[in-house]
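Human: I would love a firmer grasp of how sequence relates to backbone shape in proteins. Could you go through the record with me and say what the backbone is doing? Here is the record:
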Amino acid sequence: MEAILGFLAALALSTISVGSFLGWSVEGAKNVKVAVTAGQARQFNSAAEKYVKDFASVLAQSATAGAPLIITPGMLRNAGYLNQAVSDTNAFQQTWVLQVRQPVPGQLQAIVTAEGAAIEPRQLVKIASNIYERGGFVPYPRQMGDSTMDANTAVGTNGGWHVPMAGWRSPGSGHLVSLLTFGGAASSSNGYLYRVSVPGRPDLNEMQTALGMRGNDINNVGVLRGASGAFSGRVATNGLDPNDLPPGWGGGFRTWDIYAGGTIAAGNGGSTPVGMSAAGNMWANTFELNAGAQHCGWSQVQIRNNNQMFICNAKGDWVPASALVGNLTTTAQYSGYYNGWGVTPPTCGPGGSPWFSITPVTTGVEFANHNPPLSGAVYQMGWNGSQWVLQIYDVLADGNRSRINDELGLQADIRVGCSFGNGA
């Protein structure tokens, strides 16, 4: 009898152990299925988010606030964002779907849903939790006793986000939903610069900071427009080599022709010691050609610091231009000078001597009506130690040609300049 009782007890214990083992095995299989599905979701979400960001400008041209654009696993796979070995369905035989909408121009919204057979509530929550912050699901009405849950709103892990399913292709209760981007892929705050235009969003084609090229080129530019330009090296146009410059030149600009509507000048710090205007005027503080050369070539010309011009003669020597076209230069002219007015002699420099000429202004003067009568006037130049002084005398008609200081208010025009000796 005791043997029979012992056998029955052993049989009962064995039955209990087998039952527990089977229960643990089933629960373990469910957990594995949950983990596999969550891993598949993370992989698909990553591919989907990269796709939306890279093709945001293209999606923005066709996505609307209405029915979403549907991107299938095959489309992601063909675009190179999803591995060829990844299945279209998860461990629960639900099919992954990427949905994209554009409720406001330039602002994309994207979610990933799993369509197919529903998953029971406990596993649904576990899978969403293992997808991390993006993970969520469309709940069953009053799921887990929560009266706020219904099939009209997808909820994130631990209530991290809520997305109304109106406007989306809702898979219904018991299905996974992952939140990817809301306003991120095509919004003005995402930091992306788009290669193509986005309707209603010209700002998406505008840089908001300096563009650093790290020494790389920008090729095939049509028209380059801007407020100003600064280059650290040389610039060339019309296919010329920017380094094709004479020896010793620092360079900067290499081109064929320059056609300016204003002024072309050279200088530093805002000064323009030499220049040429569109009106044809030219100026230079000094003008020297081959100034340091002792010998020259035919047709060369030189102007030295004393404003004297030299021309190269047939012997290859510099000859003052005055030797060929006259040795006088005029530096100033003064009109309407009276008796006693002074003129400062010019500074002529090496080899030059100052000179003056006086041209009387006697038109309309009646010498004979003066009392005593005059026969004319004498104009000459005196010296007071620093200036030439105009001296005008009236000549009496007394037979002795006596001179008196001018009483008629006579005037003269004075011209001054420099005289250079011939060097031909």
Observations:
- Residues 20-24, 183-190 have pLDDT under 50 and may be disordered.
- Residues 32-182 form one domain.
